[in-house]
Amino acid sequence: MTLELRHVTKTVGAATHIHETSLVLDEGSFNVLLGTTLAGKTTLLQLMAGLDRPSSGEVWFRGANVTGVAVQKRNVSMVYQQFINYPHLSVYENIASPLKVAGMDRAEIDRRVGSVSELLRLQPMLQRRPSELSGGQQQRTAIARALVKDSDLVLLDEPLANLDYKLREELRDELPRLFAGRRCIVVYATTEPTEALLFGGNTATLFEGRITQFGQTGDIYRKPKDLVSAEVFSDPPLNMAPVTKTGNRIELSNGIGWMVGPNFARLPDGKYTWAIRAHHITPFQQAADLATVDGKVLLAELTGSDSVLHFDLNGATWISQSHGVHPFDVGATARLYIDVARSFLFGQDGKLVGGSE
67 and 182: one domain? Predict the structure, then answer.
């Protein structure tokens, strides 16, 4: 069983929402669509589900062309960012609703609802109405309704975005377990690189309606094939600078430079774009061979259990991320250590030419 997009596009008037896209998703796979808001994630999900029809190209599922086949005629479930539950129905009735529509007998409905509600820890709430539930419980109910159908294709459109931090973390841990061993294809849309890394599986990076890269999540994170894919898969934003490489040294336009290892030194001399993720720049010397810079602190903030430092480096703003709570005074000079071996070099065409996580 596969889901295949064959040269699919989507235009609305003069605007192109999805540029020509071909993609194959396999049975039992967990796939992440990763991109910023308006990158095209929701449009792709709607095309996969049959909620929308491509302007050109075809959608194939289970070996059949389903382009234009309505979602009601496909075995598809979809969970949205908003909690979409029927307010006048109990949790049990909400979960059971697609099975009742399908004409399933009561004993099988009870069995399925009981199984999925136990999995999602909803059994004590089965007789409550959605208004009596917390946000996390409401979203669990929506997910349970998607799971109970035993769909071939499950589409999740930023389902955790409206939950508080604690509930997001809890459901992030649960989701891969919920789909483990199922034969369905799961597609999960998110703006957060952290979620893609937590879920593993496969990731497609999206930018302005184009899939820039698709493959195993860890591979794409460690080896983005181009600068756009690296930017999509970096949060905080990727630190980037134009550099000139001469021998075994790279130098920024402001005169700051570092020695590089053999993975960069073997490249032809010339101009490149150098990039490094924020967590490879820290205010702590973790190894003897790290490069150093002194930056003026512009902003120091806490994000969860990490400290994020925005600093000025000769007129350019860079970002450092380190684990733990580390106070810095705005305007002070901070010495920062750069793990140059973990950086990337991109050619003038934006393609990766060297570097590794």
Answer: yes
